[in-house]
Specification:
Mean pLDDT: 88
Distance between the termini: 39 Å
Number of domains: 1
Order of helices and strands: EHHEEEEHH
Strand order of the largest sheet: 1-4-3-2-5
Largest sheet: 5 strands, mixed
Oligomer: single chain
Helix content: 25-40%
Strand content: 15-25%
Length: about 150
């Protein structure tokens, strides 16, 4: 499900694997890997560092960080983290996008940047919308896993 007029996001596997190798990416360190990539790879200075939500092949939405390169018809995704796990079919829901110039102002802070608000990122409306879109895509509902569920020992 895409917003009207939204460009499709295309994960570039080969470029993501090469990037993971170039920066010595670490599993489960998505924000670090994406930040390291945009800060150290001169050929990515036109990319955007992104914090949002992703749905890897297991189907559960996760908070995630990656890079995007905008093209005329689509947005190329470079993800040096999920490719380490072999994920190929990933849905991406960006919340916050930062240019290289913007990233320079906070690259050495605690990541993810979205949490700098002191409220776990929930004061950023675009981040909230990204989570909502991810949950709608994955579950067809805005409820988070476990929210509103009842259990019984009967």
């Amino acid at each position: 499900m895409r917003e009207p007029g939204a460009k499709s996001r295309v994960l570039r596997m080969a470029r993501s694997v090469a990037l993971a190798q170039a920066i010595d990416a670490e599993k489960r360190q998505c924000w670090r890997n994406a930040m390291l990539a945009i800060m150290t790879q001169e050929n990515l200075r036109h990319a955007h560092y992104v914090e949002g939500w992703a749905i890897p092949e297991h189907g559960i939405p996760i908070e995630h960080g990656w890079l995007e390169i905008e093209e005329e018809a689509s947005i190329l995704v470079l993800d040096p983290t999920l490719v380490l796990l072999g994920d190929r079919n990933v849905a991406y829901f960006p919340g916050l996008r930062f240019s290289y110039e913007e990233v320079q102002a906070f690259w050495n802070t605690t990541l993810p940047y979205v949490r700098q608000d002191g409220h776990g990122g929930w004061s950023w409306e675009p981040y909230q919308r990204a989570q909502e879109r991810a949950y709608l895509h994955a579950f067809g509902t805005l409820k988070r896993v476990g929210e509103g569920s009842e259990s019984s020992d009967d």
